[in-house]
Structures are given as structure tokens and as C-alpha cells.
Amino acid sequence: MLTFIGLGLFDEYDVSLKGLEAIREADLVYAEFYTSHLMGTTPEKMEKLYGKQVHLLSREDVEQQPEWLDNAKDKNIAFLTGGDTMVSTTHVDLRLRAKNLGIETRLIHGASITSAVSGLTGLQNYRFGKSASIPYPYESRRGTKVVSETPYDTIKQNSELGLHTLVFLDIDNEKGYMSVNLALELLLEVERKRGEEVMNRAVAVGIARAGSEKPLVKADYAENLKNFDFGKPLHILVVPGKLHFLEAEALVKLAAGPEEIMENIE
Ligand SMILES: C[S@@+](CC[C@H](N)C(=O)[O-])C[C@H]1O[C@@H](n2cnc3c(N)ncnc32)[C@H](O)[C@@H]1O
């Protein structure tokens, strides 16, 4: 049996009681933290609470030839991830590989950043369009910096439909956790290059450390927000589309957004 367990958003205490029990009953416990990371804890603290050793897996361990998966043929394996286990990850692929090997699977859900953003910002979850992800720029073979334009296109398409965009920020082994500030700089860079006007007139909302005692939520015009200090990771960005008056009020009162937001409501 392979049990996928979502650990929630911030520290070792975010796991559900059902998840904790399943971890304690497992023969072997594996975890991956490359799709998301619980910044308020460490593997050692998790092991102490769970009373189990946690084997950390790299992206290759999970996505290429997961030898550890064979253990699930005759043992109870717990596979831990940040957030909810199937949200904005490719773990359905792992689940299908397990199924093809005749391994039974089950899911134990955890709180996800995708629902936390609605709670923290007051933006309604059914008014979001397609999500975007911003990767770190890379160097082309000619040595020039390449910035992905895909997230900008997604924001533009959503905004034309009046929908909000949730923007996941890259986690990279070497470059670290992308900040809201860098994400906005990259989006504004694409905009300048194209000579378009989606972001520079937009109000954006940055969120840092959802699930912690003091999450930070700040709304402002993208040009201003890119200089705001969001502190430690993890960060995520929302670019709102058309605002219902309750959403606008929430951005002003709960996210210290500019009062003019109230003039642009539906
Ligand atoms: C690829 S998504 C994975 C989502 C995860 N499976 C879930 O359900 O929450 C990870 C990205 O979401 C954002 N994120 C996740 N947890 C966060 C948190 N507690 N606070 C702020 N941003 C977070 C970051 O941008 C991070 O790089």
C-alpha cells in the first residue's frame, strides 16, 4: 500500500490526525520537498513528532526510476509532500505507476496553498482562472538571459476574462525560493519588452509564509509591490482580475491595499 499524505502549509503540526496516524503505522516513510517546502520545521522535528525515520527523496528519486516504490508491494509506505499531495504537483504520475505495479494507493489530504490564498486575501476561489508558474530565468547557449513569457500570457488571458491568476514561484536547488519581488520584476520585464500594459496598471497581491502564526498579505500596484519587503519564504503571488466589492474591501482592509481599488469594482 502506498499512502500519499499532504502535510499542510508550514510546520510539522499542520498534518491531519489521520495523516499522523498513517505515518506512525507505516513500515517506511518517504518525503519529497522539491514541489513545496514546510519552512517552519525540519526533517528532524518531523521525525521527533512522528516517531519515524523520514527518508528524503529528490526529484529524480520520485520521477525517474523510483526503486523505493517496490517496497510498497508488500509494505505500508507513507509518501509525504507539502500542501495537498496532488495539487500543483505531478504525483498522479507516481500514483499511476504504483497502480500499474499492482500497488494499492490512497490519499490523505492536507491544507493547500491554493485554498489558503483565498482565505488570506478574500479573493473568491471560483473567480480564479488558470494558474501560472514562474521559473527562474536561464542562460541560453549564447549566454543571454531567457525569461519565460508563459506566465505573463496566462495572466493576460485571465485578466481579459476578468479572472484572478494564482502565480506559483519557483523552488530551485541552487537559486533557492523565488520571491514575490523577483516574480514581479520578471513579469514587468516581459511587459516592457512587448510594450504591453497588463501588469503596470494592475494591483497585485503578495503572500508570504501562509500557515505560519504571522502570514504576510500585501496588495499594491505591481510597480510598488516589487519593492515591498516580504521577508522569509515561501512566497506566492496573485494578480486579481475584476473585483467584486467584497473582494475589493478585503484587499483594502486585510491586505493594506490602495483605496482606489474600491473604484474599480464590478
Ligand atoms: C508547486 S506549489 C505546490 C503546492 C502544494 N502541493 C499545495 O497544495 O500547497 C508550491 C509553491 O506554492 C507556493 N507556496 C506553497 N506553500 C506556501 C506557503 N505556505 N506560503 C506561501 N507560498 C506557498 C510557493 O510559491 C511554492 O513554490
Automatic annotation (TrEMBL):
Where does the signal sequence lie? none
Q: To which pathway does this protein belong?
A: Protein modification; peptidyl-diphthamide biosynthesis
The superkingdom listed in its UniProt entry is: Archaea
Segments spanning the bilayer are none
Q: What is this protein identified as? A: Diphthine synthase
**Residue stretches making up the Tetrapyrrole methylase domain:** 1-192
Question: Which is one Pfam family of this protein?
Answer: TP_methylase
Species per Swiss-Prot/TrEMBL record? Methanosarcina horonobensis HB-1 = JCM 15518
Q: Which GO terms describe its molecular function?
A: diphthine synthase activity
The UniProt keyword set, sorted, is: Methyltransferase, S-adenosyl-L-methionine, Transferase
Query: Would you identify the family this protein belongs to, as annotated?
Result: Belongs to the diphthine synthase family.
| Subunit annotation | Homodimer.
Q: What is its EC number?
A: 2.1.1.98
Q: Which gene encodes it?
A: dphB
